[in-house]
Amino acid sequence: MVVVTGTSTGVGKTIATAALAVRSLADGSVVVVKPVQTGVGPGSQDPGDAEVVHTLTGCAVQEFTALDDPLAPDTAARLRGVRIPRVAEHADRIKVLAQFHDTVLVEGAGGLLVRLDTDGGTLLDLAALLAPSVVVDVVVVVAAGLGTLNHTELTVNAVRARGLEPAGLVVGSWPAAPGLAEQCNLEDLPRVTGLRLLAVIPEGAGALATADFRQAAPGWFTPAAG
Q: Which amino acids does the record list as binding Mg(2+) (predicted)?
């Protein structure tokens, strides 16, 4: 079981999830789960994250809950006055999927503590609920530029405070022309967190065709990532 979180929204979490899915195909069947997707109401021009992952990888995907407005899930649900499942309900469904797939990847919404339900449940709560039943690897997707060290340490410390040790970091979008901050962060991120850098994904990777993405993705992972 792999739970993919980000240090914030827009750090490349969905493309990182797709890359992790491609890498996991070598170990057997894969399904990618998006417990809650927001911003997919009438008139939306953007596909949901699960659809993006499926397009890039061809892997099976499941989206449990879809909400119209591009807001945090609990805010989007309250705005429309709709009930959405609690995190515990998502955990039960994911445990069933784990019985039928070799790898289940769960992509969160925004950052680690974004509320996925109207009772205050977060992706961190979901990971903690899954952990007693299955081995849970929490992968933290991070930005490359200024501010990422602080955001990453806060996220990693929050995971550890719940008794979970993150599996590693993924830089979700590495610029074609990295500056000094990006170059230094590539060394400093593992140093300040004590975590492995699992992969560095080039910016624009999400625009690749399916065959090209599947061919390129394994090369984005560091040899130490296994």
A: 14, 49, 107
